[in-house]
Amino acid sequence: MSQEEWLELAEAAKILGVHQSTLRRWADHGKIAHIRTLKGRRRFTRESIEAARKDMHQEPQQLRTEQLETRTLDFTRQRSSTIEGKSQAWMENLSDEQRLVFRYSGQRLLGLMMQFISRTDSAGTFLEEGKRVAGDYGRVCYNAGLSISQTAEAFLYFRRSILESVQATAGLGGPYDHDGHRIFLRTIDFFDTLLVATIDSYSNLKLKG
User: Fold this and answer.
1) Using one digit for the tens of pLDDT, what is the confidence trace for 149-202?
2) pTM above 0.70?
3) Angstrom distance (rounded) from CA 123 to CA 48
4) Which of 9, 46, 118, 195 could form a disulfide with 5 if both were Cys (CB 3.0 to 4.6 A apart)?
């Protein structure tokens, strides 16, 4: 009997053509068998990864969404590293701790957005959690002393980077990529709802103050 070949997370994700975070989620949900080393690192057999790759080719819609997630995450990180160097007036009001909260919230919202756009149903659970995170975002802006217009500007600053990322990746199927267009519109719906939740949270604090 031949010895099994074990792959590290990065190598396995590259074979599947998905982001490492996507493969982590699949592994955590039991979709792909894996083990953990004594140091907690994931290992996958080549056989299980090849089987998963074959299944993905038989499910083009799933493959389309997961590839979009991979490309959007990569593009967003590149975009973020570019725009972080550009000074924004509202940024000067944020403490280092508040900037970290913004960064964490942004990562959380990106993950929720991916869950939301990958579904054809209402995906209300992910939308509600996104609204909760957006509410925290509004509270941070209020506590930082930002005006309501600066709060909207801060949110739109983040929203634009995500929309540019999705637009750049969702259109890879060509000008008649209907699924890419659906994903783009669903992304807009997601962030429109979150913007309202952010402003509501800020406004409620303003009224109480």
Assistant:
1) 999 988 888 788 777 766 666 554 444 456 667 777 888 899 999 999 999 999
2) no
3) 29
4) 46
Report CA-CA distances (Å) from 162 to 30, 39, 106, 169, 205: 29, 34, 10, 11, 27
Instruction: Give the β-pairing of 35-36 and 6-8.
Output: unpaired
User: Could you tell me if 165 and 76 are in contact, meaning their C-beta atoms sit under 8 angstroms apart?
Assistant: yes
pLDDT tens for 25-54 read: 788 877 788 899 888 899 999 998 988 887
Contact 199, 138 (CB under 8 A): yes
b/e 1-29 (16+ beta carbons within 10 angstroms → b): eeeeeebebeebbeebebbbbbbebbbee
